[in-house]
Design brief:
heterodimer; A: alpha+beta; 27 helices; B: alpha+beta
Chain lengths: 900, 111
């Protein structure tokens, strides 16, 4: 048995030739003995351990075991490199900081992409888990735009009984008020079937999960808390298992805590509380039909409101099951599912989807992928600029040493050794930069928590950690790129002959070709800065455009809060809402307050009865129940017709108002007043046939619905609808009004959780999360890039001016004025900047397709943004060149000639 | 005669060499130290100690024959020199003198 060859080879390289045979022979003898006594695996590991220890320890004892001469030389060169770097502390610090930021940003981005796209959810054996989906050719828009990943309740039993999968679990989401230690709050709840955590391969570490007995309608309420809620509300107390809490006015018992890294099956919905699946009907409004039990139908439709597809069914595939087998078995399920469902999707088919893919909806996945690509390019640009900055520094430094290096070579120094010194400098800079990248990436990831990805994925739930593999790759790439730059710098530094070096003593201005390389580097930096800064500008313009959608409204003073009546609202009654409205309107800090009933919206393709004719709406159409203060509170003006009279606000002869956009649809471009609309009543009451009496301005609350289709109806029509929206127009300090409103709600009914109030401006801003994120990230990186560019311009212009001192002095002696001499420097700055801007605009044109998706009402070639960015960069580079230009104007030939 | 006092590992190496009939190579020396003291002395420390002892002329070395079980590599045999033996003896006497009448004190300190 031979010892590991690689280990032996590595050790041999570290030993003196006269020691090599003895030490390697001794090790081989011991290795042989260990193979006999402890086995081969142990012996090989032992050999590696001792070979590494010997290589390291013998290297440290140079007085006894001589180090090879070449290693001594390398160490000396490294020492000299450190000395040279320390002599220019600011330039060195700037290079290290750039590399640290660039590598840190690259690591943070890659880790984010991995968490959002590659491994979005923490389940065991993800390859064996599948989400069962339904593909349908017919429109299902009336279900409310749910994705096809969710199925109606009967599908769970049908899939479970079909024995296609080893195990099957279901889950559905719904927010519930949960009170822990007397603090009520609306929590994201995931209703899960018994054995859910077992099916996804994530058993609970604290407590137990739901049993079949827990997962029964009417069963005593058992609760599993998320790890985050357990820590924040119960201080990670393990004895909290068995503790009573209140869920929706019902006593419940905590039975377990979900694994810390498990954040549900959907990225956009990280659950805080888990409840048994079948108790969903016990907690939610009785009008909702979760289990496909519509009850006796009346003339106007089902007595209960169908929930449609709400259940995400997850199955663990049997070992060895092929895709074809699963597909065939699921196809056979179609009839079974239809028998238990009222959905009537005749042509729907079941399919399976990868559980990690299903964590994001298709559209969100596309957007996140695009966004990740944009981020990756941004970071790559920053990494490039970091390497360019370091390259510029090394180049200028090695150019400054050309004469010295030429003399060294003439005296017999090895070119390899001299080049190694320069490359070592680059290597040192990049290694220190990589070390600095660790805290930068942590800081960036912590800063990302406040943002949302496209698709509404809050970054705080992703729990992104710095990935060591990614870090090694990014750091390795930066080290290699810097080393490559250093090789170029070494090439430039060593290109001089001793004759040239001696001639340069005469003060000859260096040839233009020698300055070309560093000019190219600065041009690259200016180009990257332009791309990053204009990207940030375009994102910022998008956010600005979104906020200016309602120019006639003061969206910063319009506060809104979602509430509900009955059990959903913590016992708040209609009478309580009337009292709340009265008290708020009596508050001098509030201009007006109103209670709105948001009836939800019907998606494109929904049908509507207008003047007895069934018409299909082409975009989201929503119904809002309004009271008599609504228009005043919102500041909406009636642009045609009139507002509702008292009689029209009643149930007997209701009237309606429409938004301007919806009015155009109803009246087919003509006046909509006098037209009638049939309003469906989900509660089994008779439908209303309302007459349009007025048209109000469009109010944009969803940035993607610029022509809002809204039907305003008397609130009394929907008295049984559970949701309410409290709308307040604050006169002054909105934060104070929000506090007072919460206090008023608690004063009226202490059992009701205080509502969360947000301004309309904030809710519009929240829809611009990715744009805000893009503006912040690209802005920060762009500023960094611009600073580096300034540094690069200054270094290049200053060093060129120093090299040209004698030439400038001769020009001055021949009669050139200070202005003319300064103009020479300014011209160089302008040439570089113009070339950089042209290159940057080319890059921006190439990247336009990538950024276009995320821009809102702004073109990627927005003249204002690109113009302001370009002018700013010109001004900044001129400022950087000002000092060298002034110095050039003051050159004195006598002084220049006296210089060594 | 070299007057430098012996280091800990140098001392152990010299005693091990004495026990191995005054001539041996690194592998048995390390094994002897391990078996007698129960200590796992670092391999590199033994090589460094042997080189130092050779520089101090307390041991001398010769290259042996190459053998197959060592991958065809020869052993380096070390022999205790007269100076080495004297140094070891002196070192032992120093220790003995230092340790004289300390048993009671040591037991007291341990308690």
């Amino acid at each position: 048995m031979r010892p590991p060859r690689l280990a032996a080879w590595l050790l041999a390289g570290r030993l003196r030739p006269e020691d090599r045979d003895e030490i390697l022979g001794d090790l081989a003898e011991d290795f042989d003995e260990r193979v006999g006594t402890r086995g081969e695996t142990f012996a090989r590991r032992w050999y590696w351990r001792h070979a590494i220890a010997l290589a390291w320890s013998l290297g440290l004892h140079a007085t006894v075991v001589d180090r090879p001469r070449d290693r001594l030389m390398v160490l000396d060169e490294l020492r000299f490199s450190v000395r040279r770097l320390v002599r220019q502390p600011w330039a060195t610090a700037a290079s290290i900081a750039t590399l640290a930021c660039a590598i840190g940003a690259a690591v943070a981005t890659s880790s984010l992409v991995s968490a959002a796209l590659v491994h979005p959810i923490a389940v065991a054996e993800a390859a064996r888990l599948a989400v069962i989906t339904e593909r349908s050719r017919t429109s299902r828009t009336w279900v409310g735009g749910r994705s096809s990943f969710e199925l109606p309740y009967p599908a769970l039993d049908a899939i479970r009984s079909s024995a296609i999968f080893d195990e099957v679990a279901g889950s559905g989401k719904w927010a519930e008020p949960v009170e822990i230690r007397g603090a009520p709050s609306d929590r994201r709840v995931l209703f899960v079937s018994a054995g859910f955590f077992h099916v996804i391969g994530r058993p609970l570490e604290v407590g137990r999960e739901f049993s079949l007995a827990d997962d029964q309608r009417g069963a005593p309420l058992a609760v599993v808390l998320s790890d985050a809620l357990w820590r924040s509300s119960l201080g990670a107390d393990r004895t909290a298992i068995g503790r009573p809490i209140v869920v929706h006015d019902r006593a419940a018992t905590v039975i377990g805590v979900a694994p810390a890294d498990f954040r549900g099956l959907e990225l956009a919905y990280p659950p805080e509380v888990y409840l048994p699946l079948n108790v969903i009907g016990d907690l939610t409004p009785p009008q909702l039909d979760w289990f496909n039990e519509p009850g006796p139908a009346n003339a106007y439709g089902p007595a209960k409101l169908p929930t449609g597809g709400w259940l995400r069914v997850v199955g663990r595939l049997r070992p060895g099951a092929t895709e074809a087998q699963v597909g065939a078995a699921l196809a056979a399920l179609r009839g079974v599912r239809l028998a238990g469902s009222t959905l009537g999707v005749a042509d729907g088919t079941f399919e399976t989807a990868d559980i990690e893919t299903a964590a994001l909806s298709d559209s969100a996945r596309t957007d996140v992928t695009r966004f990740a690509r944009l981020l990756a390019i941004t970071v790559a640009l920053l990494l490039t600029i970091g390497c360019l900055a370091v390259g510029t520094l090394l180049l200028v430094r090695s150019e400054g040493r050309r004469d010295e290096l030429a003399v060294c070579v003439a005296l017999g120094a090895s070119r390899t050794r001299l080049a190694a010194g320069i490359v070592g400098e680059g290597g040192l800079l990049s290694i220190v930069g990589a070390a600095g990248a660790v805290p930068v990436s942590w800081w960036l990831l912590a800063g990302l928590h406040a943002f949302r990805l496209p698709g509404g994925v809050p970054m705080s739930v992703l729990q992104v950690q710095v990935d060591l593999g990614t870090f090694a790759t990014a750091a390795g790439a930066a080290v290699l790129a810097t080393a490559a730059m250093a090789v170029v710098a070494a090439g430039v530094g060593l290109s001089a002959t001793v004759t040239e070096a001696l001639r340069s003593r005469a003060g000859v201005t260096p040839a233009v070709s020698r300055r070309r390389t560093r000019r190219m580097l600065v041009i690259g930096e200016i180009a990257v800065s332009l791309v990053l800064l204009s990207g940030a500008g375009l994102f910022a313009r998008s956010v600005q455009r979104a906020l200016a959608l309602d120019p006639a409204f003061d969206t910063s003073h319009l506060l809104m809060a979602n509430m509900a009546i009955g059990t959903m609202g913590g016992g708040f009654t209609d009478h309580d809402f009337d009292e709340l409205r009265d008290r708020l309107n009596a508050n001098p800090a509030i201009r007006s307050a109103s209670i709105e009933i948001p009836r939800g919206s019907a998606g494109p393709g929904s049908r509507m009865l207008i003047d007895g004719e069934v018409r299909t709406v082409t975009s989201d159409a929503s119904e809002i129940g309004i009271d008599n203060r609504y228009l005043t509170t919102m500041g909406l003006k009636v642009v045609r017709g009139r507002t509702l009279t008292t009689a029209e606000a009643s149930v007997d002869r209701p009237g309606a108002l429409v938004s301007a956009s919806f009015g155009r649809f109803v009246g087919r471009g003509e006046d909509p007043i006098g037209h009638h609309i049939g309003v469906l009543n989900w509660f089994g009451e008779r439908p209303y046939n309302v007459e349009i009496v007025g048209v109000v301005q469009d109010l944009i609350t969803d940035i993607h619905a610029l022509t809002p289709q809204v039907l305003y109806l008397p609130a009394r029509l929907f008295a049984r609808w559970p949701n309410r929206l409290v709308v307040i127009h604050a006169a002054g300090d909105v934060a104070a009004v929000a506090r007072e409103t919460r206090a008023t709600v608690t004063a009226i009914r202490p059992s009701t959780p205080p509502p969360v109030l947000a301004t309309l401006k904030a809710s519009v801003l929240a829809q611009m999360g990715p744009q805000e994120f893009g503006a912040t990230v690209m802005g920060a990186l762009g500023i960094m890039a611009a600073m580096l560019t300034l540094f690069g311009v200054f270094v290049v212009v200053e060093s060129t001016t120093v090299l040209r001192r004698r030439e400038l002095g001769v020009r001055a002696a021949l009669g050139a004025t200070s202005r003319q001499l300064g103009a020479l420097v300014v011209r160089e700055v302008l040439l570089m900047t113009t070339a950089g801007l042209a290159t940057g605009l080319l890059f921006a044109w190439l990247a336009a397709g990538l950024i276009r998706t995320f821009l809102y009402q702004v073109s990627p070639f927005d003249v204002t943004t690109l113009g302001v960015t370009s002018i700013s960069l010109v001004a900044l580079t001129l400022a950087a060149g000002a000092r060298p230009a002034l110095a050039a104007g003051r050159v004195n030939l006598a002084e220049a000639l006296r210089e060594p | 005669m070299p007057r430098d006092s012996l280091g800990d590992v140098e001392h152990l190496v010299l005693v091990a060499l004495l026990r191995l009939d005054g001539e041996s190579y690194a592998v048995p020396i390390m094994r002897e130290i391990r078996q007698r003291t129960g200590r796992e002395v670092a391999r590199a420390a033994v090589y460094i100690a042997l080189r130092r002892l050779e520089v101090k002329a307390l041991v001398r070395s010769r290259i042996g024959e190459a053998t197959a079980d060592r991958g065809g590599r020869p052993k380096r045999f070390f022999t205790l020199t007269r100076a080495g033996a004297r140094q070891l003896s002196q070192s032992r006497e120093e220790f003995v003198r230092m340790w004289a009448d300390t048993e009671r004190l040591l037991q007291k300190a341990i308690r």
